[in-house]
Amino acid sequence: MTNYGKKLDLRSQPDSHHFRELDRNRSHHQERNLIRSIHIFLFAGAFFLAGCVGPVALHKAVLEYDDTVQRLESEMLLLNIARLHNNLPDHYTVTSAIAATFDFRSSVGFQGNWPGFYDNPKSQDKYSLNVGASVSENPTMSIVPVQGAEFTERILKPLNDETLGFLAYQGVNVGLLARLMARSFHNRDSAGNFLSSALNNPQIAESYREFRRIELHLQWLSEERELWVLPIRFIQKVVAELSGPPSAGDIANALDKGYRWRKLSRPNQYELARIYSNRIAITNYDPDTLTNKEREKLYRLANRTPENHALVDIEKGYPGGDFPIFGTFKLRSLNAILAFLADTIDKTPEFEVAPDPRTGPVKENPIRTMDIQLTDSAPDTELRVKFAGKYYSVPNTNWDREGFLILYKLFQVTVTDVSAIGIPVTIAK
Q: Would you state the pLDDT for residue 94?
């Protein structure tokens, strides 16, 4: 009885195999939960990688393309100065379009191997995890050489007075603007007749001094905030007695030509008016304070000259009027501006000119309009280009950098609008 009772007690207790089965089932359940958690984590990680890598790569690429185009255009300007300095023709190739396709991909992989989960208790579980993201970029650039009639229109044609007025209105130094853009100053009488010219050419010393004194006087007035560079605006009016209201055709024709019809108070009396404002005047008084008739006279004096002339009227009785100036700046083309800068490197160097005694103190009066340095080794400046074994560069001074910025803006105004030029050259990577 004693042995039999002991045997019954042993059979009623769970053996070690049963405990192992329970442990394995519990472990299997935990692993299934772990796998579900890993799946969720991997999918979330895939979306996270795609969301992070894509915008970062796109942001960086857009900025790098923008920086590349800006550097190309800056070096193009310096390169053409170098070509002209070596008596070679200038040439311009500009970027008309950039198209880039970005492909953002993310991949996630998870593998689990549980051989002999029940059959082979000694086998070990094996796992592998793969997470990745990739970015591919396929840029296409279109470049356009400026040549033929477009070269004549954009490079060789002189700049107009509206361009000078627009840049001056942006706060550009008027003296520096005149030194870059003006070929000469034409002195005129009150009727607009030509008297003499002052050339912006250091080879003709006395004429060059006269030109520099004029632009220094304007620069001083600008620094004293006593200089106006504005369109000459006046209204031309014609009053007529009509038998009846103007027809729809008459109104349409008038609108096409910039005119406006207006009914006056008297019966059948109408006014035909047009606003003119397409010529620029540089003055030491506000043109808007003049009467309409006085502005019309000033406009007609400006309109006697071609569009590449900018009228200057420094009158007595106003600030700076003890040095009266009346005449026009004759403006250069972009080609002539670059040629002038190339010549001042060593062929026709500029020299120091003091302001007229009637001119107040100016803040800056450097000898050179824009310093272009010629060296054998690479200078410590971003604005540089190598040509014919030499480095052409713009030094890191405020005056020279502002001069190059004006040059770059003129390049944008004249050259980079290439939408109307023929079929571009396309380069795909």
A: 74
If you average pLDDT over residues 319-325, what whole number do you get?
96
Which of 276, 300, 334 is the endpoint of a domain?
A: 276
DSSP assigned state of 77: H
- Output the pTM of the full model: 0.74
Per DSSP, the residues of 281-329 read EEESS-GGGS-HHHHHHHHHHHTTS-TTEEEEEE-TTSTTTTS-EEEEE
Q: Give the bridge partners for 135, in sequence order.
A: 104
Supply the range of the domain harboring residue 244. Answer: 234-276
Residues 68 and 205 in one domain: no
Asked, for residue 314, whether it belongs to a domain, the answer is yes
Contact between residue 404 and residue 373 where contact means Cβ atoms under 8 Å apart? no
Q: Which of 139, 163, 185 is the last residue of a domain?
A: 139
Residue 393: strand pairing partners: 373, 384
Phi, psi of 420 (to 5 degrees): -95, -5
> What is the secondary structure of 11-57 as a DSSP string?
HTS--HHHHHHHHHHHHHHHHHHHHHHHHHHHHHHHHHHHHHHHHHH
DSSP state of 364: -
- Give the model's pLDDT for residue 423: 46
Concatenated DSSP letters for 213-230? HHHHHHHHHHHTT--EEE
Number of domains in the chain: 3
Over 60: is that where the pLDDT of 277 sits? yes
What DSSP character marks residue 220?
Answer: H
Q: Which amino acid is at 380?
A: D
What Rg do the C-alpha atoms of the chain give, in angstroms? 39
Region of 323 please: left (phi>0), alpha (psi -120 to 50) or beta.
beta
CB atoms within 10 A of CB 177: 27
Residue of 140, 47, 143 whose CA lies nearest to 102? 140
> What whole-number distance in Å separates Cα of residue 201 and Cα of residue 124?
91
Contacts of 237 (CB under 8 A, 6+ apart): 271, 272, 273
Distance, CA of 76 to CA of 399 (rounded, Å): 21
300 falls within a domain: yes
Comparing CA positions, the residue from 218, 273, 210 lying closest to residue 240 is 273
Domain annotation covers residue 425: no
- Please indicate, yes or no, if residue 205 is contained in any of the structural domains: yes
Residue count of the chain, please give it.
429
Quick one: which of 244, 73, 218, 92 has its CA closest to 155? 92
Contacts of 238 by beta carbon, 8 Å cutoff, 6+ apart = 271, 272, 273
Same domain, 262 and 315: no
